[in-house]
Amino acid sequence: MDPLATKIINAHGDLAEWRNYQSLTAKLEQGGALWGLKGHPGKLNETSVTVGLKDEWASHAPFGPDGKVSRFSPGEVRLENRGGRVLEQLADPRASFAGHTLETPWSEPQLAYFAGIAMWTYLNLPFLLARDGVKTEALSDWQENGETWQRLKVTFPGSIATHSTVQTLYAGADGLLKRHDYDVEIAGNTPGAHYISGYTEVQGVKIPTARKIYPRGPDGHPVPEPLVVSIDLSDIKLA
User: In CATH, what number does 3-238 get?
Assistant: First the structure.
């Protein structure tokens, strides 16, 4: 790993201890313009999310007002009822986004796929940097809000389903994450600037509880409107 990647991981907790856990569960509140744009306003405003910390999987429950449960993995998405009966499933879900733009509506399984890759990535960072196949490289520093942030280029292998192959993390002097940039490949490579705050300590691990995602302009700076997605986490548990 790049030394900056090691610094960022160490700032968030002990990697060996993190590897003792199998999953992370949190209460999740979401807002922003994206959900309505994609045809699902309010569907995931208040829910709970669980993500795997070994294999890549995620689940939202409830998934919408009917009380469905989503089951995401890179190769398949399922929607189930409360009893576990499969209501709808989508194999090879990423292929279903071919030709999509930011304005293209999503089906419910596509929504579950996006929500799955997003929350799995967010909640596994920065420890995800130590995974086999993930490559890291320090970039030049970045000035924002009167602060100097260190930047880390992250290149993901094809085996990991995430927003884009190449992403950028920004860390403060203490190593804690401040910002996370990516291009949402399944939505026409839409560029996002994702701000991270509200750190809390959970079982010895520092985890951010607040995230706000804005469009990213050609100069790398955020566009203040619209707020694309807001994420607030509480009741976080590692198991």
Answer: 2.50.20.10
